[in-house]
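W.,

You were right to be curious about this one. When I first looked at the sequence I had no strong expectations either way, so I just let the prediction run and decided to look at it fresh. Below is the sequence, 431 residues in total, followed by the output.
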Amino acid sequence: MKSYKTWIFVTFGLVIVVVGLLIGGILSFYSAGYTVEGSSGIVVMLLLSLVLVGLLTAIVLVSLLMKDQKKRGKDAAHAFPALERIDDEMKKNPPLPYDKVSLEEFCNEFRNFSAGELGLYYSIDDIRRFIAGLAVSHILILQGMSGTGKTSLAYAFGKFIERDSTIIPIQPMWKERTDLLGYYNEFSKRFNETQFLETIYQANWRNDMFVTILDEMNIARVEYYFAEFLSLMEIPSNSRYLEIISSTSIHDPVKMKNGQIKLPDNIWFIGTANNDDSTFAISDKVYDRSMVLNLDHKAEAFTVDNWRHIRMNAYDFQKMARQAMAEYRLRYKYKNKLERLDLYMQDTFRLSFGNRINRQIEEYTSVYVACGGDELEALDDILSKKVFRKLVGGNSLYLKRKSGELLDKLDELFGQNKMVLCKEIILRLVR
């Protein structure tokens, strides 16, 4: 733009100078007593000079215009410079080999690495819940009091698998998918690429486990800005595509087809949630599609002599999870107890487990056991989050009246001094 203004001023200046010379010359000739016939040659020369200056100026301006249009066309063709840089980087750097471990080893090594490398301490139960949660759903919610290590846990996992987690600080005014993915700028002819988009795109190049942290996810309404992802996670992985841009170009990034990028099966979204007056309540729609880990208190410090990274192939991790679901199927006696509890909850509180929750219960308990945990402890954990959590917001007087009967039902089905987490929720609600 500056070059245009400069040349416009120069052009006007030259025109004024030439016209001034023309007029001045004519006046001088007349004042000196020259006739029109005698001065006609000089007038013609001045006119030719004016035409020449005009032509030269026009040529320069046209050249500048063509050069600028060419540059704009080049910029418009390369609308995704950050994604193209990822293409170049991935082509130059081949993937590193992955480690082979069991789910139980994976949990133990992660706990030791967090403590030894980062000074972050978690109980083995919380680590098992974290890994089992990742095995069941690609959306995991970490909730609890401030300072209990919610963000740190997801961050540590990225360090552990040598694929750093991407931290996305959620903003209070976020309402749309563009807040996460970015948008196309018509003026610059470029897409406003975000870290969130770059991580999804990068995951299309590798089989690593990619983690995106939605930090303080409920400072805005999750079901607004994250709605598309909640829906996509419900369909088969080979059909999950995000429309990024409506137009296409031969210069589009390698992994973008027809303006779309695949939402791959090797990316997980981990949200941290606080429950206070500054945040929104997370809806049942979000909770039902997610796994939840409550971090209510810090674990005690412990000493670790040796620790290491584990490079985990996402598809190996999912394969181990499937094998665990086949090998450690929920035992019939617990399936029967769950059916009886489901009928009781329907009759008494009009709460039903539903197909999704039943599937999550069976998958979660299987993987938790493969991680070295106890089957009944896994049931207690997931029932407290998926079923008994739904009593929150109900008729408190009715719940208080029925609480003793509900506690007795848990004892009858699962035994005395069992289902501690479920009972804690019930007692907390009736206080």
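Here's what jumped out at me. The radius of gyration is 34 Å. And, maybe more interesting for your project: Residues 2-77 form one domain.

Coffee later to discuss?

I.
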